[in-house]
Amino acid sequence: GESVGLHLPTLSVQEGDNSIINCAYSNSASDYFIWYKQESGKGPQFIIDIRSNMDKRQGQRVTVLLNKTVKHLSLQIAATQPGDSAVYFCADDKLIFGTGTRLQVFP
Amino acid sequence: EAGVAQSPRYKIIEKRQSVAFWCNPISGHATLYWYQQILGQGPKLLIQFQNNGVVDDSQLPKDRFSAERLKGVDSTLKIQPAKLEDSAVYLCASSLGPSPYEQYFGPGTRLTVT
After folding, report:
1. CB under 8 Å, gap of 24 or more: what pairs does A15-18 form?
2. CB contact under 8 A, A51 and B91
3. A77: which residues sit within 8 A by CB, 6+ positions away?
4. CA atoms within 13 A on the CB side of A96
5. φ, ψ (nearest 5 deg) of residue B41
């Protein structure tokens, strides 16, 4: 069946460093991808999205890259802060979520 | 702007009992979603409403789960009878319209079935 998966369950970074969270998808017909951030005890929160006709999209401190050739997208967080500590999910337009990557930021 | 409200926040029941969750979406949001999130996994879509009509319920275990949105605003999700594997967080989300409109999630209801 269709799937959206993440490469690493946990990512630990030092405060101030850049973080890169990866995601692979299987449905080449997916037209739209979204990154969510989920803090403990809360629902997922929209971070940034990208349409399949784009390769890159930038937000505030975040950038999403889409490589349709290898069905891969990544979320880059610049100057990672303690408040960025959370689980990050990618999802496609079929509302299929990946397993999630836990980002831990240490001082 | 008020967010998506859900109640209760926590519920503990025994297997074979029934339980209901309530969701109040953001005012004006036509699309409402229910997700199941098992510990350590991503949310799984159970059902999607557009106003008071069902758009997608392909992953809803219809033998025990039911959901309704009678007036196109609030929604309830029911499980009857509950099984141990139903232990999860049940998330409600709403959006102005279907994908790609941004979804806003509620805090979820944590269900423990013993």
Report:
1. A15/A80, A15/A81, A15/A82, A15/A105, A15/A106, A15/A107, A16/A79, A16/A80, A17/A79, A17/A80, A18/A76, A18/A77, A18/A78, A18/A79, A18/A80
2. no
3. A18, A19, A20, A21, A61, A62, A84, A103
4. 18
5. -125, 165
Q: Do A97 and B43 touch (CB under 8 A)?
A: yes
Q: Which of A34, A43, A100 sits opposite B106 (nearest CB)?
A: A43
Of A42, A96, A99, the CB nearest to B107: A42
Q: What is the pLDDT of residues B8-30, one digit of tens each?
A: 999 999 999 999 999 999 999 99
pLDDT tens for each residue of A67-96: 999 999 999 999 999 999 999 999 998 888
At residue A107, the 3 state secondary structure works out as coil
**SS3 labels along B69-112:** CCCCCCEEEEECCCCHHHCEEEEEEEECCCCCCCCEECCCEEEE
- Report residue B5's pLDDT band, with 50, 70 and 90 as the boundaries: very high
Residues A95, B107: C-beta atoms closer than 8 Å: no
